[in-house]
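Morning, I've got a small favour to ask if you have a moment. Here's the protein in full, and shout if anything looks odd to you:
***
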Amino acid sequence: MKKTLSMMLILGLTLGLAACSKNKKADANADLNAAAANANSQYDDVIVEEDRLVEAVESIEVNLTPVYFALNEYSLSKEARNILSANAEILKMKGINNITVEGNCDDRGTIAYNIALGQKRANEVRDYYIRLGLKAENINAISYGEENPVCTAQTNSCWAKNRRADTVISAN
């Protein structure tokens, strides 16, 4: 009788454990399926957010034209003032408030001289934007001196391309 009872107990425990392990596998599969569905849902949400972001960026995409300077100069030419006026209109139309004016130089002259000249160019552009109605507190001016060339050839035409001020949209 003891033997039969022991066998019944072992058989019951075995069946119970087997049933539990099947439930664990079923539960694990259900958890995996739920996680996969959730991940796909989250992925879809990311795609939707990315699409919205792309649309927002495209709606404010602007082409701001740089202005160029004569050798060792920081005063604005008539052409430069016309370009800045067009840039200011675009900024106002698009509702863009925060910009940075980046002053640049060619690689002739000392580093200190070019940093100072680049800052004078950036300040001149900033001041002109302010005269055109942009708010002073929303315009930063920085000099890159000769450190941000768009052309590296040692020619007059290349140096002229590097004597410029770029207007870029700032994050804040």
User: Anything to note?
Assistant: The chain has a mean pLDDT of 84. Helices lie at 2-60, 78-94, 111-131, 156-162. The CA atoms of residues 74 and 120 lie 6 Å apart. The chain has two domains: 1-61, 67-169.
